[in-house]
## 1
Amino acid sequence: MSDGDRGAAEAVARPATRGPARATRRCLAALALLAVACGDATDRRVPPADAPELVLLVTVDTLRADRLGAYGSDAGLTPRLDALAARALVFDRAYAPASFTLPSVAGVLTGRYPEELGIRDNESGVPGGVATLAGALRDAGFRTGAVVSNYVLRAPSGTARGFDRFDDDFTERESTRGWPERTAARTTDAALAVLDALLDDDAPALLWVHYQDPHGPYTPADEARAAQLPRYADDPAVPRDLPLRDDPLGLGGIPDYQAVDGRTDAAWYLAGYDAEVAATDAAIGALLDGVAARVPADATVTLFTADHGEGLGEDDYWFAHGELLTDPLVAVPLLLAAPGVAPGRRADVASLVDVVPTLLGLAGVDAPDALTGRDLLAPGATSAPARAYLATLGGARTPRVALVEGDHKFVLTLEGSIWRGALFERRPGEPERAVPSGDLGPAMRKALRDLRQRYRGAAETRQELSPEELEALRALGYTGRGDDP
Ligand SMILES: [Zn+2]
């Protein structure tokens, strides 16, 4: 807990909806203008008269875009998210700025790339002087609250900055090692309790909820796993006897933090991952139902995304993330449902650093500083050149950086002392594939190098960690500090 109360204990009953709130705010705005006109200086912050009642930001850890029906899956794992997608603007080509938690989430919360913040790994901290989504909305008169269920995102990481209420109460222990976590159903309960506390004030609210469940180890209910198993058990392409690694890397085998009961059959883990996704979808459905019972749909802005994906055997990378920048690790779902935003699909490249300017725009609040991300709903946004910058930072043994632009991704990999480049093509719904570089490769290599120069150089803020905290962070699949690219 950093600034603000833990909200979970302060739940109060709410009426079904809060229809008059916006009208009240318009009156307050008029009164404030009148006070200024009469020379009565006031520092009372009044939110924009047309601000939504609620900005709801939902993020899921380790959720690949292609597990959603809305992104092409036919496994039926995500009926609730698919229903949200049906009334949302769906971004087909959204990218996380990194393939592990803290750098990516920091990008979501600040609108800047992790290197601009000096963030290298899960032991870094979001620096104090940087503007955040929560801080900007709070300064504009919003009440702000968050519920996070990944230990990496607890308040000392700096993610709590700008929130009036920040619930990082890890009520459960992960089954294989006993590290702190909170499962999806309880995350929803905590989120609705925080929302009730926020709505107890006649002001618009920001609620951020981060779910953890698809992150390994995959430990769904037995029957939930069994329901997913047939899809993999008879597939000859699914290995039946993977090596068990003795470290957190997933290159060529099962990482130590994922291994359950010494099992080596990939199908069992793949089914476990899918079952965790399905359980998270159900919990998010309960969250959306709870929100709808409290705030009218036409007064709610909902943005849904994930912090990164997961390797599920592509490139012989198993049940891990962080090491690569392939699409299974960095292509994330991005759904935006808001009043006045027509449902549909967008094919231009989006980055998670675009979340802050987009949500501030929908809230009618000016960005406090120039942000790196772009407002995805700005006039001309669909035709403007768009790109996403990606980096493995300290989460990988082999450093990589990448640029996504148009239908292509250019990846630089540090081999020895040489950065080697490769060009990949990827179209929505298709796996990326290496293609001849032609003129495009050198052009993207130069653009990528320019971006690296621009974004690098910020001093790192390190969290002050106890030995126990350090051990817990490293147990969460963290792979150690790689060479500095
Ligand atoms: Zn994560």
## 2
Amino acid sequence: MHRYDVLVVGASFAGLACARHAAELGLKVGVLERQPWPGHTVHTTGLLVREADVLLQAPAALSRRIPGVRLYTPSLRHVDLDAPGYYFAATDTPGLLRWYAEQARVAGAELHFGSAFIDARREPEGVLVNGGAYSTRFLVGADGARSSVAAHLRLGRNRAFLLGIEAEFRNLPLAVDRLHCFVDSALVPGYIGWMFQGVNGITQVGLACQRPHKPDLGALLKRLAPLADFGRAELVEKRGGLIPVGGCVAPAAAERVLLLGDAAGLVSPLTAGGIHLAIESGLRGAELIAERLGQSAPSRRPLSPVELRHPRFFWKLLLRRLLELNPPNRWLERLLFNGLSLRIARLIYFYRKGLKGWAGWRALLRR
Ligand SMILES: Cc1cc2nc3c(=O)[nH]c(=O)nc-3n(C[C@H](O)[C@H](O)[C@H](O)COP(=O)(O)OP(=O)(O)OC[C@H]3O[C@@H](n4cnc5c(N)ncnc54)[C@H](O)[C@@H]3O)c2cc1C
């Protein structure tokens, strides 16, 4: 039997952030990951907001900076949005996850790849996992939007999702180096399409829509033909997955059990970005667990959303409801060039990203 202070299920952004930090804090950490090696199957676009890039401090070769956003109407009229000093980082996501896993291993975590979480049973002093093959004082579920840990231990589950799909191309240069975003209520109801120049000569093109709609990548490529020459491009890979957008699950913790990242519903309901929140939740979770396990008689009380600093997403959930009303394209054509809508778009993309508080609001609204 493997015995740990903390057993983390899932070796992606949330799980690796937690495992590395918990090991750095002196805990004996194990990680279970069903994939055979880190980054084997990636389901994300892997675009980082600047804060996540700063937090990760990954080697420069694994990412490239994109200076701002170009937002398109359904007829492909566009407007450019940016904030001083702000950028997004495109990443070699499998490479990034391999690097992050190595960081966790060097910190002292034991990584078990090709090992799926199957079941868990509570014991007086901890949790027994996979029929007793692993014993842990604290179990962490960082196993994504459809968390098995949450299901087995009767924690909160994600209920609202976007479905995203993306293709990676070679030989598809873009004339303008921006994060190109497309709104179209017929093609991408409830969200957007995107296209940008990634790392190592790759261009990423994708879209996500609210369920039960299905994203139609072929239709998006046809629509984007005036902007990029898909005829000469080589398709390298396709990927996709569910993005939870219903806000934090409740409860996200129980006695000696904690959910992180997508498993906890920690994804912005508006932008559908979750990597930054996954890393932050992993780091915070590791600190709280180390604090608990360091007590002479560890409290049995579940960690609370306040201790975990879970966002409430009040405004973002409200705006998501508006997006789900799916305004017709003729409204979108007008709205996107209206001064107020542009200010709101800037706030969505850049508020709290380099520009904070009243000073941030004022700076953005003046632009
Ligand atoms: C198409 C798409 C595009 C996206 N693009 C972006 C983006 O550009 N930027 C952004 O910030 N966010 C993006 N997101 C969201 C982002 O990918 C997630 O929020 C983020 O990956 C969450 O990290 P996580 O570690 O919580 O979970 P995940 O990345 O989902 O990782 C969960 C891990 O758990 C493992 N696992 C699952 N079940 C088990 C089991 N039973 N046993 C063992 N291991 C298990 C999985 O193999 C996986 O490695 C996107 C999501 C999708 C679907």
## 3
Amino acid sequence: MKRKFIFLTVLSIFCVLSCDRASKPVIMTVNGPISPADLGVTLTHEHVLVDFIGADSVTADRYNADSVFFTVLPHLEQVHEAGCHTLVECTPAYLGRDPSLLHRLSLASRLHILTNTGYYGAMNNKYLPEYAKNETAEQLARRWIDEWENGIDETGIKPGFIKIGVASGSLSELHRKLVRAAALTHLKTGLIIAAHTGPAEGAFDEIDELQKSGVSANAFIWVHAQAEKNYEKHIEAAKSGAWISFDGYYSGKTEQYVEMLQNMKSNRLLSRVLLSHDAGWYHVGEPGGGNFRNYESVFKELLPALTENGFSQQEIDQMMVENPKQAFQIRVRKTTQ
Ligand SMILES: [Zn+2]
């Protein structure tokens, strides 16, 4: 009797421990799940390879994966050297997403890399497959959830976030459907939604559509928020809970970025900011992959400029480490109402 009691006690302790382990938050990289604490300094919006040919013609046969690997690797090694630990690769399906290539590059460069699920509707829907125009939000969500549950194509590699794209201005019916599909996928998977968006009008439409589907603005990254020149809109969106992604940084943009970040700081909203270059990439169809913009300017120019302008190391870490760690955690974020 006593022995049975001990057995049951040990069994229940084991259950508590393993349940606890199961509920620990993770971030999904192309090499599998990692603890958010291991994410480190993160560039939240970059590209390794992009093919602009269009959804009707895009295929992995259009480039040599080995050539791309050897072209891109030195850039990833350089940014790793500059202090970066994780790179979020934002190229969606039908625009050159290649999880196997990212997996190889991640192992060789020792950078964590995240890939995505979802479809890109901006640029006149050139990157949407035909079926995406006709299927319902539920059908699209089922495809994206399947990538989360079973891996992308035959690779077994899982997405670490949802990437969609919408055109500037008020959302079309088709793009509203993409947002609804992203909401349904989020509710099932806990993957955050990064949406290529222009100025604020589209972003507020997206937040509205997500909330109508029961998803909190916390699950939404307003990608390319720097396109909005009225900085009050950044504040308004951040106060609603959205992540504000200033992700087009290059040398000539220091003054604008310092201004936008000072505005966020004076409103005590640095805890909603993500920073990146939207740089790279191997341009499929161009000799040698064309002109490759490196991933280092944030480290070599923007962060030093922020320090000169009174930003503390803690504030920089907030944007480069803490915010990505919160944003990319797999966690369902529902509206409270
Ligand atoms: Zn991009």
